[in-house]
Amino acid sequence: MAPSKFLLGVLMAVGLSSAVPTSSNTIVAQRQEPSMPAVESRGFNGMGPASIIRAVIEYLKPANAYDPSTPDKCVLEFKTTAGGDCMTYVQCKETDSLGSLSNPAVWSQCFVNGRQYFNDPNIGDYSINFTQAGGVNGNTEDGLHHPILQLADVGNWDPIDVQSLSDQALGNNDGGHLCSWTSGDFGGAGSRTLAWKCGIPKLGTNGAFGISSDTIVHTTGFTPGWCTFHIIQHQRNENGIGNDYVFDVNLYDDKKEPIGQVKNKPIDGTSKAFSMTSNLPYTLVITASGNDEADVEFAYAGTTWKSSDSAHCSMGGGPNNGYQDGYREGNCGFTC
Fold first, then answer.
1. What's residue 140's pLDDT?
2. pLDDT, tens digit (0-9, with 9 covering 90-100), for 47-81
3. Distance (Å, rounded) from C-alpha 229 to C-alpha 120?
4. DSSP assignment, residue 98?
5. Which residues contact 204 (CB under 8 A, 6 or more apart)?
6. How many Cα atoms sit within 13 Å of 213 on the Cβ side?
7. Which stretch of 12-26, 92-106, 116-130, 268-282 has the lowest confidence by average pLDDT?
């Protein structure tokens, strides 16, 4: 089935990394083109719908975001019967049972273009708006339909076209879907019921749907001078981490303003490195090619240094090389 215009649009809006592999399988810093689309500035780990949809397609497939076994998610289900009687449920456990009623439990905006707001401790503030009903714009489908979902913590209320995403899941068992919908009986509500469900990243998780967020967390631009970053290196083969190290990095400019972030970012299995984009004009390359005792290596715009270089870094050591809690961390700086 051909992807919708919405899905094509959000996927085109996602910038690709500006790191390029060389013939020797190393990653080198490359100047970021000024024409790159703006990175989503706020939301879940700094991500909006485009990043989440891409993660579901690339990481979860053949599973879906709303599958019971998908970790670090909540399933948001909502339904309407006979053009009214709107109900919303949230389930954050790994089960296929219906979740708890939303807050508020009773909709006051259960009509076309009525935007109902909710709050849930696991997914934050969100809203649902049915944009069509039977007979509206020539559509003869019974009841309220074509819902738009918006979450404060996903792209700062960026709209998610639930109907468009759900239509792609109909008759498509390949997986990689964020939302789906059904008609008929739903929770004993009767046969004139339309129901939708979406998998939503649970608040407080670092990497739902396997997301590594190369995200700008401030604005465009930066103050040059001495940039710094806090780095966490997660121990491999522990706490669900695979055979390669995984990193969290928070990057700041000379005025200590946040200008970039990655969470749960694994190194490439071949080069043992990854390249981090940010507000800076060049990428920051991080390499962890050695064993637990080895230095982490860094490169930015032709300058290289190691985690043991006291002029640039202070990196955790101590018992078990600093991994006694499953990770080691430190702070580094460089001229930017």
1. 47
2. 567 767 777 877 788 899 999 988 888 999 999 98
3. 33
4. -
5. none
6. 30
7. 12-26
List Cα–Cα distances, 219 to 39, 94, 155, in angstroms. Answer: 9, 36, 14
58: left (phi over 0), alpha (psi -120 to 50) or beta: alpha
CA atoms within 13 A on the CB side of 231: 30
**How far, in Å, CA of 291 to CA of 243, rounded?**
11
Quote helix, strand, coil % in the chain, to nearest 5: 10, 35, 50
- Rounded to whole angstroms, the Cα distance separating 333 from 276 reads 15
Q: Give the residues across from 266 on adjacent strands.
A: 246
Helix axes 5-12, 162-169, angle to 10 degrees: 110
Q: How many CB atoms lie within 10 A of CB 110?
A: 17
- Give 290's Cβ-side CA count (13 Å radius): 8
CB 334 within 8 A of CB 303: yes
Are 86 and 111 within 8 A, CB to CB? no
Tokens representing 35 are 């024409």
Burial degree of 192 (CB within 10 A; 0-12, 13-18, 19+): middle
CA atoms of 256 and 322, how far apart (whole Å): 26
- Check pLDDT > 90 for residue 155: no
Is residue 230 within 8 Å of 218, Cβ to Cβ?
A: no
User: With bands split at pLDDT 50, 70 and 90, how would you rate the model's confidence at 37?
Assistant: very low
More confident residue, 226 or 50: 226
Mean pLDDT of 93-108: 90
Which residues face 335 on adjacent strands?
A: 226
Q: Are 242 and 250 in contact (CB under 8 A)?
A: no
Is 272 in contact with 244 (CB distance < 8 Å)? yes
147 pLDDT tier (thresholds 50, 70, 90): very high
| 230 CB-contact burial (10 Å; exposed 0-12 / middle 13-18 / buried 19+) | middle
Q: How many CB atoms lie within 10 A of CB 221?
A: 10
